[in-house]
Amino acid sequence: MDQFYRFFKRNSLIKDGSTIVVGVSGGPDSLALLHLLSALKKKGSFRLVAAHLDHMFRGKQSENEKKFVQKYCQDRNIEVETAQVDVSQFAKEKKLSSQVAARECRYQFFKEIMDHYQGDFLALGHHGDDQIETILMRFVRGAAGRALAGMEEIRPFHTGYIIRPLLRVTKDDLLNYCNQHNLNPRFDPSNEKDDYTRNRFRKYVLPFLKEENPKVHERFQLFSENVLEDEAFLQELSMEKMNKVWNRKKDKESELEIKPFLKLPLSLQRRGIQLILNYLYKRVPSSLTSIHIESLLHLLSQKHPSGSLDLPNGLKAVKSYDNCLFTFAHKKEIEPYELELNPPKRIVLPNGAEISAHKGPFPKEYVNGNNFFIVKEERVTLPFIVRSRKSGDKLKVKGMNGTKKVKDIFIDEKTPLYERDEWPVVLDSSGQILWLPGLKKSSIEDFNVTNEEYIVLQYKKQAVVGGYSE
Ligand SMILES: Nc1ncnc2c1ncn2[C@@H]1O[C@H](COP(=O)(O)OP(=O)(O)OP(=O)(O)O)[C@@H](O)[C@H]1O
């Protein structure tokens, strides 16, 4: 079990006074781990607490496993904590598979024990064969990036770290260890069932790999560590690049600038997409695969200016010209709106923008942009109407002969599809369309700068918080 000791040497982790909680199912892996840790404890001075959760899957048999762990620990003066949770009931309530529910309950239990004992580490008995299975399962399912590294030897968990000191040894090593030390572990019959994917990999794939190379677990472990190193580097690089093209917005949405994104190398693009998805999903769904990432990359790089893609758990990517919006908000039913605007007044619009109107001299700050509309009162009929677009809306565009459909202005200005239904259209009470704020104005804004009074309309895409007259 040199490998076990080397783990601690390599990581120079355990300081005097540390507390290690060890998850013990009663099976050979975790029992060997407990035995090794209590031997190590004799050399060092850390506190060791065994923790066992009875999932109540197999009635008396499960309970016997709990008693077995309790007795094992009591006989050896090892502190032990146990609990029972009706995982089947929990799985039903939460609509989870029994495996996922068991994991959730177990990790919750571990957290409670860590809190109670101020644990620094949670030691788990995963070994090299588990690692091979995990990596292969993820690979076959279509995982990408660091997920392909399988399980980490050390990773942050709750108030401390999960440690897996047995990833460099095999199941056979552990069974031999149990035999040598007469540990007499319990065997969980569900580990043999063919209906669990992991069990099928164990039964049908592992023997072949081990025949090809008896030390194949070392190859997989090395692969895992290399992937983690490479990923850490690439991850940092993609974060740095993505920060320039990705607007996180609220926690349910993100926006990506497509053109500069597509200039990044493909490997950073892939990781960039993954960063967005990690950010939006609190927990990345297992149904999300590299196929989704590839489909997203295809959507972003194809010539067509708009399109969308449905991703698991209701996330949607909506491409529109130079932007792609990632959102959970299902296409909101956008209510048409119509508001009156009589100067002096400020109104906030359903899309969060604001329009203000006041009478006064020609504004000095006026630049000939589309965020202002300035008109003499005699040229319009008050009040102004601010409303959402209607089919057939047309604007007599300033500086152009004839009229132009509002719809075509949106297209030419590359206004994202999801913004068009809420975009304000400003008219006067006689029904003439005066202005598409931020985009185009009508030739009615035909003024000569004089000392007379004007009506000044101003559009701000983001309403200023506070200070509204209405
Ligand atoms: N019921 C449990 N109570 C406490 N810890 C557990 C329990 N089940 C699993 N663990 C911990 O999680 C690790 C991985 O669990 P998993 O079920 O994948 O392993 P296993 O191959 O069945 O291991 P073992 O031979 O120890 O049962 C175990 O080695 C152990 O450290």
Structure description:
- Helix 4 (87-94) packs across helix 5 (98-117) and helix 9 (216-242) packs across helix 11 (266-280).
- The chain folds into 3 domains: 2-226, HUPs (Rossmann fold), CATH 3.40.50.620; 243-327, 2-Layer Sandwich (Uridine Diphospho-n-acetylenolpyruvylglucosamine Reductase, domain 3); 338-460, 3-Layer(bba) Sandwich (Phenylalanyl-tRNA Synthetase, Chain B, domain 3), CATH 3.50.40.
- The longest helix is centred in the middle third of the chain and has 27 residues, at 216-242.
- It contains 14 helices and 22 strands.
- The model is unreliable at 465-470 (pLDDT under 50).
- With 470 residues, it is α+β, with helices and mostly antiparallel strands.
- The strands form 5 sheets. It has a 6-stranded mixed β-sheet, with helices on both faces. Strands 7-8-11-10-9 form a 5-stranded antiparallel β-sheet.
- The structure holds adenosine-5'-triphosphate (ATP).
- ATP binds at residues 25-30.
- This is tRNA(Ile)-lysidine synthase.
- Its main location: cytoplasm.
Category by helix and strand content: alpha+beta
Q: How many distinct helices?
A: 14
Q: How far do the termini sit from each other?
A: 75 Å
Which range best describes the helical content: under 10%, 10-25%, 25-40%, 40-55%, 55-70% or over 70%?
25-40%
CA radius of gyration is 32 Å
Give the uncertain stretches in residue-range form.
Answer: 465-470
Describe the sheet with the most strands.
Answer: 6 strands, mixed
Tell me the count of domains. 3
Q: For this structure, what is the CATH homologous superfamily of the largest domain?
A: HUPs
Shape: elongated
Share in β-strands? 15-25%
The CATH class of the largest domain: Alpha Beta
**Overall average residue pLDDT:** 90
CATH architecture assignment name of the largest domain: 3-Layer(aba) Sandwich
Task: Write out the strand line-up for the largest beta sheet, numbering strands in chain order.
Answer: 3-2-1-4-6-5
Ligand names: adenosine-5'-triphosphate
Total number of strands: 22
What name does CATH use for the topology of the largest domain? Answer: Rossmann fold
Catalytic activity: cytidine(34) in tRNA(Ile2) + L-lysine + ATP = lysidine(34) in tRNA(Ile2) + AMP + diphosphate + H(+)
GO biological process, one term: tRNA modification
Binding site for ATP: 25-30
Organism: Metabacillus arenae
